[in-house]
Design goal:
Residues 298-622, 627-963 form the ABC transporter domain. This protein has 36 helices and 34 strands. It is α/β, with parallel strands linked by helices. It has 6 domains: 11-104 and 521-622, Rossmann fold (3-Layer(aba) Sandwich); 114-130 and 452-515, ABC transporter ATPase like fold, CATH 1.20.1580.10; 135-286, Ribosomal protein L1/L10, rRNA-binding domain (Ribulose 1,5 Bisphosphate Carboxylase/Oxygenase), CATH 3.30.190; 311-434, Helicase, Ruva Protein, domain 3; 630-718 and 856-967, 3-Layer(aba) Sandwich (Rossmann fold), CATH 3.40.50; 723-853, ABC transporter ATPase  like domain (ABC transporter ATPase like fold). 42% of the residues are buried. Bound molecules: adenosine-5'-diphosphate (ADP) (2 copies) and zinc ion (2 copies). The site of one adenosine-5'-diphosphate (ADP) has 17 residues, from helix 2.
């Protein structure tokens, strides 16, 4: 080992190398002979999209770390994890245990919340179990359990000289003879009992002779002792109370007679004590952390099983367009049956119409409330006749059925169906609503009535991180409760602090895991790692700055440094300029993407990178290259107005978005950008223009949509989930290539058509892998793994098909060819050339035309989608919506992306992006800045106008940053 790093280190650290040594790294496009990644530093991997950053960070370093970890497990554990593939690397030395903090693995578990993911909820449960005060949920009184000592003390507080009779109730109103009970009591020396209110001395009835009427209900108690109330008798009282509680399993009655009444004493008072928590005829279980878990039967609401929601059919989804008649499809679940005009559903519709005198051709909204009601909710008890078969034919007949109504019918089938596909169909008409029993709080009433500092645990989880932090800072628990809970309280406040530090103060603790954005989920995980205080670990993060406004970047960077200062290696794949500049060490990948990349161009401090003549990143950092701000801004050609928007945190705002220009919606994380664009605008347009049934976020009206004919959301989701999708199939270029192959003499001679060259249909493909080229191996607990098909060696086709060649290339060879080369290969085919050119224009020339969808990065998928749009004939009336399109993109990629977006606008279209990247923001024609803060403190329009105009608005955080840039 070379002593390359000679900085003095701790003793312990001196024994292990100060860097991870990577030798011969060849995963995917990598061509790295030797690389040293310093340990216990903040290291940033940067470079254009597709240059190989993730291939090294995730697919090599993290993958190998995982693999070595799995190898240390017992063979029993290993069998469940399967064989992890070794990354393609000759040698890795000095690897630490690795933890990846990714964006994508946001929890889809409907039971997860911000509180559970961060473990704050686990600590809250402990805190409430130890220090919470139980109240009866029916009468509101405190429920308390008493100890024998406490009960005795209460008896001793009675006037001196009184006599206390301790009575242990044994049987309450139960049928039976109870002979054995009596014999047992006698055998154990008890003398007095009470049976149905009558005192009986056991020594006065013969053994075995006392028995009760078997079929009647009886109440039996045993008298433990009668004690004069006096401090001298304290010990005797305590023992009596304990014995009584034991006999009765926790309850004790005490009848009190005052002193000096002679023989005719009368009970003057009766007290009841219990070590069981009881009130209003119900006993309350002892509190444990599980009592507060909505995943445990002890804590969960019985009505919703702790989900907090239930599904309900939403009439608005069933009748998306009330101006249609039933025949024209007013009732969405019937629409296709009505269009076909036959089949079972159609018959039922006809019969219902006949029985209820509903005209199938009347627009739904003109039917009247009563008839609508009958169709949707049925006719209780009344039968209708349903006909089947052709009238007059042998199979014709009718039978009677009760009309249950469209909505109850959907609900029933959703409940009873065992097929996921069918359930998904019904699910489309449903909406989640809060559970009525718990009001969405997920817990049972007994749990919800436990309070600490006046708040139930659900009151705390409805707080935002910021509010909860303030609540716990102010919370002082005194005495024993304070002592036992101090540690727990500290865990809670420190975790809340980490969440504040990563800019998530606006999230509520009960916010569901599945509703978090990728960036939010990642930052939560980052915050949780700080809580774990691990050291000596290598953390690998993928663009933690995603979703974060420039304003909050500093706090995120401070968090990353803190993770490093705990003694960890923090390896971040990132393009954000501020983060790159904050790194201890930068590794710049390139020079290009795919086979044009895969090398390390420069490594060193940010300053060294900036000076490096060959580093593209350096060129941007130093300003040698920059994305030019457009000289002039386009003038809007019209407006869309969203009026009265109240979805999530939006404050009943009116927002106007210009048409015919590039608009950026900006604002800090949680400001309400997605609520506006993805929550209201997109689904509203989807409904109007494409007949989708997606629920639309709360707003009053949207105006000005009539000039649009299409809305297209371009996201970074894969272009397909299986290896069957690729850029060629997605852009239809491959269809043309197959046509071309079918025209070749060799193919025509055999009568082969284009289907022969498809890997999706039988005939030309390899049947061993059904044309996938790979075979899926399912892994327990882990993502599926694909291995190359042994029969076709990954070529996807059978031998005969492969014998047909175009310019020397088989169809399989074509799939394995980069788009750049395909363009040369197919130059003579105009239509194909046009599609391939747009793929090259968006910077995807390096990608193989057959590269399978699951292996493409989010940025690559996004650009494939954009290129398909560019290659379409433009109507000039399309609205494109992109949510943080710069995710995964380097400065250079952003320059290309902006070029594509500007082209779409030049063709007359409108583009709306949600974006934090200042390069994009300053190049937009128009900005709508939402905020000013995240969550409740946001939801308003802070500024709108050209970047120059917004830069002058001091209240706008975006404006403040723009002002510096545009100066
Ligand atoms: P970056 O992280 O720099 O954007 P990647 O490491 O994701 O780049 O990708 C480097 C190259 O390897 C790209 O050309 C990409 O398409 C390719 N690639 C990534 N994952 C796979 C995979 N699973 N199989 C084949 N090629 C892949
Ligand atoms: P942005 O896109 O500007 O980051 P969002 O529109 O995602 O902001 O969030 C605005 C507010 O609405 C935040 O307080 C956020 O926590 C809340 N919010 C967003 N999505 C949901 C949801 N599915 N359920 C409840 N609250 C949500
Ligand atoms: Zn419930
Ligand atoms: Zn095969």
């Amino acid at each position: 080992m070379q002593a390359a790093h000679s900085t003095p280190r701790l003793h312990e650290a001196a024994r292990e190398p100060d860097f991870i040594e990577v030798i011969g790294s060849r995963e995917h496009n990598l061509h790295i002979d030797k690389l040293e990644v310093p340990k216990r530093q903040l290291v940033v991997f940067t470079g254009v999209s597709g240059s190989g950053k993730s291939s090294l960070a995730f697919d090599t370093l993290y993958a190998e770390g995982q693999r070595r970890y799995v190898e240390t497990l017992s063979s029993y554990a290993r069998q469940f994890l399967g064989q992890l593939q070794r990354p393609d690397v000759e040698h890795l030395r000095g690897l630490s245990p690795t933890i990846a903090i990714e964006q994508k693995s946001a929890s889809n578990n409907p039971r997860s919340t911000v509180g559970t993911i961060t473990e704050i909820y686990d600590y809250l449960r402990v805190l409430y179990a130890r220090a919470g005060e139980q109240h009866c949920h029916q009468c509101g009184k405190p429920v308390q359990a008493q100890t024998a000592e406490q009960i005795a003390a209460e008896i001793l507080a009675l006037p001196a000289g009184a006599r206390a009779t301790l009575i242990a109730p044994l049987v309450k109103h139960r049928k039976g003879e109870f002979r054995e009970l009596f014999d047992d009591l006698r055998a154990r020396g008890f003398l007095r009992i009470e049976v149905d209110g009558k005192a009986i001395r056991l020594d006065e009835v013969a053994e075995g002779s006392l028995k009760l009427e078997k079929h009647q209900k009886h109440t039996i108690a045993v008298i433990i002792d009668r004690v004069p109330v006096s401090a001298d008798n304290r010990q005797r009282l305590v023992e009596g109370v304990e014995l009584g509680l034991r006999e009765s399993k926790g309850e004790l009655e005490v009848s009190v007679e005052s002193a000096g009444k002679g023989a005719k004493k009368q009970a003057e008072a009766a007290l009841t004590f219990s070590v069981n928590r009881a009130c209003c005829g119900q006993s309350f279980p002892e509190l444990s952390p599980q009592s507060f878990s909505f995943n445990s039967p002890l804590g969960m609401c019985n009505a919703c099983n702790g989900l907090g929601t239930r599904l309900e059919v939403d009439p608005a989804l069933v009748i998306p367009d009330a101006s249609l008649s039933i025949r024209d499809g007013a009732i969405a679940p019937w629409a296709s049956a009505m269009a076909r005009g036959e089949g079972w559903t159609f018959r039922i519709a006809e019969s219902v119409a006949k029985a209820c005198k509903v005209n199938l051709d009347t627009p739904w909204k003109k039917l009247g409330a009563k008839k609508q009601q009958v169709v949707l909710f049925g006719m209780a008890g009344q039968k209708i006749a349903v006909a089947w078969g052709k009238e007059g034919s042998e199979s014709h007949g009718t039978f009677g059925m009760t009309w249950e109504g469209v909505i109850p019918g959907l609900m029933r089938r959703f409940r009873d169906s065992t097929s996921d596909t069918a359930r998904e169909q019904y699910r489309r008409f449903m909406r989640e609503i809060a559970c009525d029993a718990c009001g969405g709080r997920r817990l049972r009433p007994e749990t919800l009535s436990v309070r600490l500092a006046g708040r139930s645990i659900a009151d705390v989880t409805t707080m935002t991180v910021r509010e909860a932090a303030a609540h716990f800072d102010a919370l002082t628990l005194t005495g024993a409760r304070g002592q036992i809970t101090e540690g727990v309280r500290r865990e809670i406040t420190s975790r809340l602090g980490f969440l504040l530090n990563v800019g998530l103060e606006y999230l509520t603790l009960n916010r569901g895991g599945p509703t978090l954005s990728g960036g939010e989920a990642q930052r939560i995980r980052l915050a949780s790692q700080l809580g774990s205080e691990l050291s000596g670990v290598m953390y690998v993060l993928d663009e933690p700055s995603i979703g974060l406004h420039q304003r909050d970047n500093g706090r995120l960077i401070a968090t990353l440094r803190r993770l490093r200062d705990l003694g960890n290696t923090v390896l971040v794949v990132e393009h954000d300029e501020e983060t790159v500049l904050a790194a201890d060490h930068v590794i710049d990948f390139g020079p290009g993407a795919g086979h044009l990349g895969g090398k390390v161009i420069a490594a060193g401090t940010p300053e060294e990178i900036a000076r490096h003549p060959e580093s593209l990143t350096g060129a941007y950092l130093s300003g040698r290259i920059r994305i030019e701000t457009p000289k002039a801004r386009r003038t809007p050609k019209g407006w869309i107005s969203v009026l009265g928007a109240t979805e999530h945190n939006l404050k009943n705002i009116d927002v106007r978005l210009p048409l015919g220009v590039l608009t950026a919606v900006t604002g800090v994380s949680g400001a309400g950008k997605s609520s506006l664009v993805n929550g209201i605008l997109l689904p509203a347009l989807g409904r109007l223009l494409h007949g989708s049934l997606e629920p639309v976020g709360a707003h009053r009206a949207i105006e000005g949509l009539d000039v649009l004919d299409k809305v297209i959301a371009i996201d970074q989701k894969p272009i397909g989930r299986t290896p069957r999708s690729n850029p060629g199939t997605y852009t239809k270029a491959f269809d043309m290539i197959r046509e071309l192959f079918a025209q070749l003499p060799d193919a025509r001679a055999r009568g082969w058509e284009s289907g022969r060259f498809s890997f999706n249909v039988k005939g030309g493909r390899c049947e061993a892998c059904h044309g996938d080229g790979v075979v899926k191996v399912e892994m327990h607990f882990l993502a599926d793994v694909y291995v190359t098909c042994e029969v076709c060696k990954g070529k996807r086709y059978n031998e005969q098909t492969l014998s047909v060649r175009y310019k020397g290339k088989s169809i399989a060879d074509v799939l394995d060819t980069s788009i750049d080369e395909c363009l040369k290969l197919f130059e003579a085919v105009p239509e194909l050339k046009r599609i391939l050119t747009t793929l090259v224009d968006v910077g995807l020339g390096y990608v193989k035309i057959g590269q399978s969808a699951p292996t493409m990065s989010g940025g690559e998928a996004q650009r494939v989608k954009l290129s398909r749009e560019l290659s379409k004939r433009q109507t000039g009336r399309t609205l494109y919506v992109l949510d943080e399109p710069t995710t995964g993109l380097h400065f250079e990629d952003i320059r290309k992306l902006l070029g594509v977006l500007q082209r779409l606008v030049d063709a007359g279209n409108s583009v709306v992006v949600i974006e934090h990247n200042l390069d994009v923001i300053r190049c937009a024609d128009w900005l709508v800045d939402i905020g000013p803060e995240g969550g409740e403190g946001g939801g308003r329009v802070v500024a709108e106008g050209t970047p120059e105009q917004v830069a002058r608005v001091e209240a706008s955080y975006t404006g403040q940053f723009l002002a510096k840039l545009l100066r």
